[in-house]
Specification:
- Chain A is mainly α and 226 residues long.
- Chain A contains ten helices and no strands.
- Chain A has helices spanning 2-16, 19-36, 41-53, 58-72, 75-79, 86-112, 119-142, 147-170, 181-194, 198-224.
- Chain B is of the alpha/beta class and 284 residues long.
- Chain B folds into two domains: 2-214, P-loop containing nucleotide triphosphate hydrolases (Rossmann fold); 223-267.
- Helices cover 32% and strands 28% of the residues of chain B.
- Chain B has ten helices and 13 strands.
- In chain B, the strands form three sheets. Chain B has a six-stranded mixed β-sheet, with helices on both faces.
- In chain B, α6 links the parallel β7 (151-155) and β8 (182-187).
- The complex binds adenosine-5'-triphosphate and magnesium ion.
- Magnesium ion (MG) binds at residues 42-43, 83, 155 of chain B.
- Residues 42-43, 83, 155 of chain B line the site of magnesium ion.
């Protein structure tokens, strides 16, 4: 199976380039900070915001690093002349990074927020979010030749992701922004630790799932035309 | 095996075509070489043929099918080595082969034997980032053929290699030809072209100016000469004469009769001389 081979190869690549080491350190840092905060609403909020802005979004940053490294080493060109298909290539990246997102989120939450978490919902939510952010980052990366170009290009994209999130704090009743993947994701993540009716969680998950499909198709298109 | 008709390619944003109507055909079991100065389009043509550069005009048929209609299984049948090594730098030589091998239906069984073929067995567990250019090129080369493809594309296969390793690669290419494999290669090294290729095409500015066997080219464009080093009244001098009608060449006869001869060599026109003569261009 080529996909299994690609997963193995990606795990090895990410491990050898220190992505997991870096992320372990970051996770430990978050755990230490969160453990210092006394339990309560503030802690739950902080945990939710951390999980949303870091483990769930890490794909956005990591995919950039990974693809740029592959580009620099010429791996991207070489893979294009092996039987590995673009679908398999992209899926493998998404799955490996989702694995990291989910495990980091679970570990951070486990170490800091023991009671009342629906672990299944957490896993599915972070998975859906991670897929979106990895592919979002992937599309930003493809057009870039250098790391600097990449960093420069991420800024507007990052703003685009964070701005609508503020909207829900300023206009809590503006429901239409919830159709955006990042806003739906943020509400879902807040709900994981602060509570949310299951119907609403399901709705946000559906929204995210749809976005995941759309951005996957888009990524394939961008990939094959580059 | 591979047939190319009126192939044109233009890079995005470029004003003119880089490949300007190229026609050639490679027969099964043949080593076909593209020769040309830097910037003539050798790498471009290889990248178009293997499908890395899309959006060409004209036609490329390989294995009796149009290139743009190929699926991923096309890559089971071809092997590609680029002009620069592209390897996982943080992985070892063996890991580099193993990870890529898993993408093929016909993966090699013995990686150590492969590495041994290019003299990398002692370095199999070392990270590639510490390899020299030549070591990387050898690993790159062996990786391109490990799945036993029928058609191979080598871009400057011996660049950056010392004479011993260059010979190793040349011999491996000849062995593959012996096994009935077909090889497309590019180079600006005429000696390699002469030693390896059944036919060569001269590429200048994205066009083929000549295509034939090295032997036929020499017969047609080359001239055999004799070079004489001699002492004329005590000072060293050199003269060159056509090999034809040497016995009737009075100047030559005078020199060998009355001067002190230092050396006499017969010379063959090299492919390089012919290239310069035909295209008016220097290589490199
Ligand atoms: N990515 C690119 N975008 C635009 N033009 C390009 C690109 N790559 C190559 N070219 C141009 O296409 C022409 C042919 O380049 P190519 O790399 O095919 O030459 P080459 O024959 O392989 O040269 P060399 O012997 O130096 O490897 C050159 O004029 C080059 O500037
Ligand atoms: Mg080249």
């Amino acid at each position: 199976m080529r996909l299994i081979a690609a997963l193995k190869s990606d795990l090895k690549f990410q491990f050898k380039h220190g992505f997991y080491t870096v992320y372990t350190l970051i996770a430990v840092l978050y755990i230490i900070i969160l453990q210092k905060i006394p339990g309560g609403l503030f802690k739950d909020y902080t945990l939710a915001l951390i999980v949303f802005s870091d483990p769930a979004m890490l794909g956005f940053f990591f995919i950039g690093g990974i693809v740029m490294l592959e580009k620099q080493q010429g791996i991207l060109d070489y893979l294009a002349v092996t039987p590995l298909s673009p679908q398999e290539y992209i899926t493998s990246k998404v799955v490996t990074l989702a694995l990291l997102s989910v495990s980091a989120s679970v570990v951070i939450a486990l170490m800091t927020h023991l009671s009342g978490v629906n672990w299944l919902l957490l896993t599915i939510s972070i998975l859906a979010l991670s897929v979106f952010f990895t592919l979002y980052g992937f599309m930003v990366t493809l057009g870039c030749r250098t790391i600097n170009q990449y960093f420069f290009k991420t800024v507007p994209f990052l703003l685009l992701t964070t701005m609508p999130c503020f909207a829900i704090f300023i206009f809590p009743h503006l429901w239409i922004v919830s159709l955006l993947p990042n806003v739906a994701g943020l509400k879902l993540t807040l709900g994981l630790f602060l509570g949310l009716p299951w119907q609403e969680s399901l709705l946000y998950l559906l929204i995210l799932g749809l976005w995941d499909i759309v951005i996957y198709k888009l990524s394939l298109k961008v990939h094959s035309s580059s | 095996m591979l047939s190319v008709k009126n192939l044109e390619y233009k890079y995005r944003g470029a004003k003119v075509n880089t490949l300007k109507g190229i026609d050639f055909r490679i027969h099964p079991g043949e080593i076909f070489g593209f020769l040309g100065p830097s910037g003539s389009g050798k790498t471009t043509i290889q990248r178009v043929l293997i499908g890395l550069l899309k959006g060409y005009n004209g036609s490329i048929t390989a294995f009796d099918k149009e290139r743009r209609d190929f699926g991923r299984d096309f890559y089971e049948k071809i092997g590609v080595a680029f002009d620069f090594p592209n390897l996982y730098l943080k992985l070892t030589a063996k890991e580099n082969l193993q990870l890529i091998a898993e993408y093929y239906q016909n993966p090699p069984k013995d990686f150590d034997a492969l590495l041994d073929q290019v003299g990398l067995l002692p370095d199999k567990d070392k990270k590639v980032e510490g390899f020299s250019k030549g070591m990387k090129m050898r690993l790159n080369f062996i990786r391109s053929i490990m799945h036993n493809p029928a058609l191979m594309f080598f871009d400057e296969p011996t660049s950056g290699l010392d004479p011993v390793n260059a010979k190793l690669i040349k011999d491996m290419i000849l062995t593959m030809k012996g096994e009935g494999k077909t090889v497309f290669l590019t180079t600006h090294n005429m000696t390699i072209a002469e030693q390896l290729c059944d036919r060569v095409a001269f590429l200048v500015d994205g066009q083929i100016s000549l295509c034939d066997t090295p032997y036929a080219l020499k017969l047609k464009y080359g001239r055999k000469t004799v070079k004489v080093d001699f002492l004329s009244c005590g000072t060293p001098d050199t003269s060159e004469f056509e090999l034809d009608q040497l016995s009737g060449n009075q100047q030559f006869l005078d020199i060998i009769s009355y001067s002190e001869i230092k050396s006499i060599h017969s010379q063959d026109a090299s492919l390089e001389d012919i290239f310069i003569k035909v295209t008016g261009r220097e290589l490199i």
